[in-house]
Amino acid sequence: MAADLRPEVVLLDFWVSPFGQRCRIALAEKGVPYEYREEDLLNKGDLLLRSNPVHKKIPVLLHAGRPVCESLAIVQYVDEAWPDAAPPLLPRDDDPYARAQARFWADYIDKKIYDCQTRLWKLKGDAQEQAKKDLIEVLETLEAELAGKPYFGGDNFGFVDVALVPFTSWFPTYEKLGGFSVEKCCPKIVAWAKLCRERESVAMALTDPDKVYEFVQFLQSKFGVKQ
Amino acid sequence: MSSSPAVKLIAFFGSPYAHRAEAALCLKGVPYELLLEDLLRTKSDLLLQHNPVHKKVPVLLHGDRTVCESLVIAEYVDEAFDGPPLLPTDPYDRAVARFWADFIENKLTKPFFMAHWVEGEAREGFEKEGLELLALLEAQLKGNKFFGGDRPGYLDIAASMLGPWRSVVEEVTGVTVAKEEEHPSLCQWARDYSSNEALRPCIPDRDRLLAYFTKNKEMYRAGVRAMLQQ
């Protein structure tokens, strides 16, 4: 193989961000070397602000200096910019329907999970109870979609798995805040999470659940949420 | 040679999201049958069966396949059928298009349209935010006729609400946020979008759209008031 002049790849990220973790997993799965840069979200640096002036948020992928923002756009970009690096994260080009289904479920995860989990830690009383109900409904919907498959994409780890798996570190936090068992309501999802964690890309990227809970407690105190 | 399976789209008149799906089909040159939901009646079994997760239009039926979510449909149409590409081919350009579609969806649409519908003091805040965000999107035209270049593409489809719907909402509410003098590129884009030959079959009849919004004006205002109270 000819010398591969890989342009520099940099990921601007934040340690506990499930969105950043999606990108780390995608890059690792594709075997793309990159530089990880931890951003101070309370004191955002120039590079982040210049690279994502619209949202000023992580993650941002810089590929030969050009920024790509929004985690699912980044994951698709990584899949498309390194097409020969196995495995493909989205189903192949010759299966547009499978690709559409993958995009639909990734979009569903994006629309639902973060909002529910944020309401779960930020709110109290009836509003928190509603957040818990909504979250369980989302997990049950995903459980039904997973059905008997090893991964959401079928036999192979793919786009929807990447989109969801970082949130699995938050399951113990959901349980503590909501007083319910994820395993009881969604055993297949829990089994799927264990299977995904056997992959090095996932094991390396996900935050320890205890640290997630500590972080949420920090957020709660910061936002004045009674614990 | 077998004929391609039929394409049907569950929609309702006036839905900007259903329009996106139609726009994708029209731009790609795919014939389709429109199945219109009647909003005055309860949602049809067909809709509930094919979109149990969101229970919303549009829903694309292609043979025995079902695709939901307007932008997912747009990408599916681009990939499943031959015809002019809707998304760029270069991975970076595709990522940029997806980023701006997400921006329209999750950042711009709500404040921009709230700035038309909200009454009283709260309107000013939405207008300021809406205008700032609109300017960011407008810059993406980069002197081109369409976001897609010479002809409309994925991002034009995503932005379509800012065309025919904006014009009608301005008339119904009496509020204009994107003024011609301040946003000439966007206003020209809207005119070019609405008059594009390939899109002709799916651009909603303006009088009919106006009647629809006029009839539902109080419903929209009430919905907006409820949103503000949350």
TrEMBL record, chain A:
Transmembrane region(s): none
A molecular function (GO) term: glutathione transferase activity
InterPro entries named among the record's database cross-references: Glutathione-S-Trfase_C-like, Glutathione-S-Trfase_C_sf, Glutathione_S-Trfase, Glutathione_S-Trfase_N, GST_C, GST_C_Tau, Omega/Tau-like, Thioredoxin-like_sf
EC number, UniProt record: 2.5.1.18
Enzyme class, spelled out: transferase
Entry GO terms, CC: cytoplasm
All copies of domain GST C-terminal, residue ranges: 95-223
Catalytic reaction annotation: RX + glutathione = an S-substituted glutathione + a halide anion + H(+)
Keyword terms: Transferase
GO annotation terms (biological process): glutathione metabolic process
Domain GST N-terminal span(s) in chain numbering: 7-86
UniProt signal peptide: none
Entries under SUPFAM superfamilies matching the protein: GST C-terminal domain-like, Thioredoxin-like
Cited PROSITE patterns: GST_CTER (PS50405), GST_NTER (PS50404)
Similarity comment text for this entry: Belongs to the GST superfamily.
Functional note: Conjugation of reduced glutathione to a wide number of exogenous and endogenous hydrophobic electrophiles.
Name this polypeptide is given: Probable glutathione S-transferase GSTU1
Species, as recorded: Panicum hallii
From TrEMBL, chain B:
GO cellular component labels: cytoplasm
SUPFAM superfamilies reported for this sequence: GST C-terminal domain-like (SSF47616), Thioredoxin-like (SSF52833)
Gene Ontology BP, a term: glutathione metabolic process
Every GST N-terminal domain range: 5-85
GO molecular function, one term: glutathione transferase activity
Sequence ranges assigned to domain GST C-terminal in this UniProt record: 90-213
Catalytic activity reported: RX + glutathione = an S-substituted glutathione + a halide anion + H(+)
Keyword line: Transferase
UniProt-listed Enzyme Commission number(s): 2.5.1.18
Enzyme class, first EC level, given as a word: transferase
Coiled coil, from the record: none
The keyword Lyase is assigned to this record: no
InterPro entries tied to this protein: Glutathione-S-Trfase_C-like, Glutathione-S-Trfase_C_sf, Glutathione_S-Trfase, Glutathione_S-Trfase_N, GST_C, GST_C_Tau, Omega/Tau-like, Thioredoxin-like_sf
Record PANTHER family: GLUTATHIONE S-TRANSFERASE, GST, SUPERFAMILY, GST DOMAIN CONTAINING, GLUTATHIONE TRANSFERASE
Protein name: glutathione transferase
